[in-house]
Design a protein that fits this description.
- By secondary structure, this protein is α+β, with helices and mostly antiparallel strands.
- The protein has one domain.
- The protein is built from 2 helices and 3 strands; from the N terminus they run αβαββ.
- Strands 1-2-3 form a 3-stranded antiparallel β-sheet, with no helix packed on it.
- The chain starts with a helix and ends in a 7-residue tail after the last strand.
């Protein structure tokens, strides 16, 4: 699903969304970067909506 389609699908629903910042992944990414393996970084943000989880590294809150 393209980014624009995903944004439209999320905005069309009325369920609450919870944004969770995973501190374990942040600390793990710091260690991974120190060893020079940037391709193995894990997403640090989880957006939870109903039964669905979306993993990302950045989020924009529009309201």
């Amino acid at each position: 699903m393209k980014d624009d389609q995903w944004v439209d699908a999320v905005m069309a629903t009325n369920q609450k969304k919870f944004i969770h910042v995973n501190q374990g992944n942040i600390k793990g990414n710091l260690k991974t970067r120190r060893t020079g393996r940037d391709q193995e970084l894990k997403p640090v943000i989880t957006i939870k909506q109903g039964k669905e989880n979306v993993y990302c590294n950045a989020v924009a809150v529009l309201g």
